[in-house]
Write a structure and sequence with these properties.
By secondary structure, the protein is α/β, with parallel strands linked by helices. The protein has five helices and eight strands, in the order αββββαβαβαββα. It has helices spanning 2-16, 64-72, 88-102, 119-124, 151-162; strands at residues 33-34, 39-42, 49-52, 58-60, 78-83, 109-114, 132-137, 140-146. The strands form two sheets. It has a five-stranded mixed beta sheet with strand order 4-6-5-7-8, with helices on both faces. The longest helix is centred in the N-terminal third of the chain and has 15 residues, at 2-16.
């Protein structure tokens, strides 16, 4: 009880204080400007905020038409990771595969398909076990593997896909 009272007094003393003039500069809403190093700088009189630009090389498939549009019709080679939430090896392979795909700097993208949500796609691409990874180029499956691979094997798999 005494601790609560002390905490209330402390918080009320902090909240009731007004910050000195110019302590907090108002944030201005501006469109981010990209500099050569993929670094966004938002100028402000009091301080500058630096953030890195996120490169979207990995995406989740929402439905069949989304798969058709983003994977089959893609001009960029696509690695498709068929996984499941309950699959232990999938939880190991997924981040490892995302890391290796990100190293390719947009030469290849990764689509993630949850087999429990998209059983029709899993059946269409003959996925009998998870994790199953397909390499799709120009709408055709050019390579496939089932199970866990280490980073070196994944890099070799991607190099073969990219050409």
């Amino acid at each position: 009880m005494a601790q609560r009272l002390l905490l209330r007094r402390f918080l009320s003393s902090i909240i009731s204080r007004k910050p000195p003039q110019g302590w907090w500069a108002p944030l201005t809403h501006r469109a981010p400007q990209c500099s050569p190093g993929d670094l966004t700088v938002t100028p402000n009189q009091a301080r500058s905020i630096y953030t890195t630009r996120v490169c979207t090389t990995t995406f989740n498939i929402q439905d069949g038409p989304d798969f058709q549009d983003r994977v089959v019709n893609s001009e960029t080679p696509v690695v498709v990771d068929f996984h499941a939430q309950w699959c232990g090896p999938c939880k190991i392979l997924g981040p490892r595969l995302e890391k290796v795909v990100a190293k390719q700097h947009g030469k290849v993208v990764m689509a993630k398909v949850d087999i429990d949500d998209h059983t029709d796609l899993a059946l269409e691409y003959e996925v009998s076990a998870v994790p199953t990874v397909l390499a799709i180029k120009n709408g055709d499956v050019v390579d496939k593997f089932v199970g866990i691979k280490d980073e070196d094997q994944l890099e070799a798999f991607l190099k073969k896909l990219i050409g």
